[in-house]
Amino acid sequence: MEAHVSERQPRVRLKAEHLGLHFGGVAALTDVSLEVREGEILAIIGPNGAGKTSLLNCISGLYRPQQGRLVFYDRQGNEHNLLKKKPAEIARLGIARSFQNIELFRHMTVLDNLMLGRHVHMQGNIFTCGLYWWRQQKEEIEHRRRVEDVIDFLEIENIRRKPVGTLAYGLQKRVELGRALALDPDILLLDEPMAGMNVEEKEDMARFILDINQERDVTIVLIEHDMGVVMDLSDRVVVLDFGRVIATGTPEEVRQNPLVIQAYLGDEALMEQL
């Protein structure tokens, strides 16, 4: 008798169930459910105003949805209700993000900005600094080592001492990616990481995203308007329209979905990319 071997499904790391987010009488998200699977690159796409950034803000704790559940499963399989967590607690669990608009400290150096990305892992305070100086110094050395690893990985050694405000836009986006990566995340939320970039900068960023996913074993949730990038990078795609999920599937399945095509009607450039 021939044995039947089924392909193992990646475990779920993040699950949203029937999320509802409202601002007064305006519904930003309505009955949104999705799963983020371990090791994948999940793209979230949709027309402007579809609720994509609002969804990331709910996951990272910046917004508090009025309905639904939002659960994170850590590497040990423990369940964490994100709706009861503050943003710093969510970051400490292993969920980091970058922002659509660059949120760096422009007067500080690249190195200092990345060191700030380690703050949620720092145990010391003013009292331990005085009482246990040697322990604080050891911790500082370890955080610096992790940041230097990120700097090497993102190939920004030559700008590590430069103030962020003096850098070209594409490099600033790379530094923001580095600050999120400095948290050692299990899940990385990227909100339009390639917005405003030229072709060469987009190619570099796409390479780094793939390397983060494959070499560093980081699960990625990606919002991106460049459909060529989405179709090339993503394992699965979730499509939002007016705050609702209208399609979920592989890039090819989503490309052929009539509801997705209808949502993008009128945007000729995006229709061509789909």
TrEMBL record:
The keyword Magnesium does not apply. Residues 14-267 form the ABC transporter domain. GO terms for cellular component: plasma membrane. Signal peptide: none annotated. One of its GO terms (molecular function) is ATP hydrolysis activity. PROSITE patterns: ABC_TRANSPORTER_2 (PS50893). PANTHER family: ABC TRANSPORTER ATP-BINDING PROTEIN (PTHR45772:SF1), CONSERVED COMPONENT OF ABC TRANSPORTER FOR NATURAL AMINO ACIDS-RELATED (PTHR45772). This is ABC transporter. It comes from Ardenticatena maritima. The gene is livG.
